[in-house]
Amino acid sequence: MTTHSSRRLVLSTLVSLNGVISEPLAWAAPYFGPGSATASLRALQESSAMLMGRRTYDIFSRQWPDTPGDYAAHLNAMPKYVFSSTLREPRWSNTTVLGTDIAGTVAQMKREPGADLIVYGHGRFGQTLTAAGLVDELAVIVVPVIVPDGDFFSGPGGASSTWELLDAGPGADPGLVSLRYRPRRG
User: Fold this and answer.
1) Which of 87, 99, 122, 173 could staple 13 via S-S, CB 3.0–4.6 A?
2) For each of the chain's 186 residues, which pLDDT tens digit applies?
3) Where are the alpha helices (DSSP H) in the chain?
């Protein structure tokens, strides 16, 4: 785990060739093999906490608590923070519910010492973080499928931003493409 004087926020998302981000378990799973499992575990190990919105919490808290393996064990053990106005008593281990002041709370968390904060997905929560200028790195895995419908990476009314490419190349398993960006400032 890399410790920084202030934390970075890394937003990691799966996207189809046509820009769909919703329900990735339905269309991305066939492309994830041992390479992706290793890369995903490494990203978690480099992070000190996971941040998520209520929707991601609902999906992950059903999937991971009873799943065997190193990835699930690490995910279950690490601190997780959920931003929600409706969740009161999370049942997933090591989960804390925070209020709805996403920008203020995350900005404060980033000022604290520690390793990276990680966010999976680019739904409303991720888009809020991006619009607030809180994302330090955007890690995108492009999955070679066309998904006929769903939520797109950036919906109507999304904030405009410019990103600088840090790295591009083949993903950890055949067919995937890995892209890493940082915000272009100024």
Assistant:
1) 122
2) 555 568 999 999 999 999 999 989 899 999 999 999 999 999 999 999 999 999 999 999 999 999 999 999 999 999 999 999 999 999 999 999 998 899 999 999 999 999 999 999 888 899 999 999 999 999 999 999 999 999 888 766 666 789 999 999 999 999 999 999 999 986
3) 24-27, 34-45, 54-63, 70-77, 102-111, 124-131
Amino acid letter, residue 129? L
Partner residues linked to 140 by β-bridges: 13, 179
The residue among 5, 3, 10 whose CA lies nearest residue 136 is 10
Q: Which distant-in-sequence residues (6+ apart) come within 8 Å of 50 by Cβ?
A: 44, 75, 78, 79, 80, 81, 117, 118, 119, 120
Q: Which amino acid is at 10?
A: V
Q: Which CATH architecture has domain 9-150+176-183?
A: 3-Layer(aba) Sandwich (3.40)
Distances (CA, A) of 72 to 64, 78, 92, 126, 132: 6, 10, 12, 22, 30
| CA distance readout (Å), 32 to 28, 52, 115, 147, 172 | 7, 22, 26, 17, 8
Map out the domains of the chain as residue ranges.
9-150+176-183
Are residues 84 and 125 in contact, defined by beta-carbon separation less than 8 angstroms? no
Q: Within a 10 A sphere around the Cβ of 170, how many other Cβ atoms? A: 11
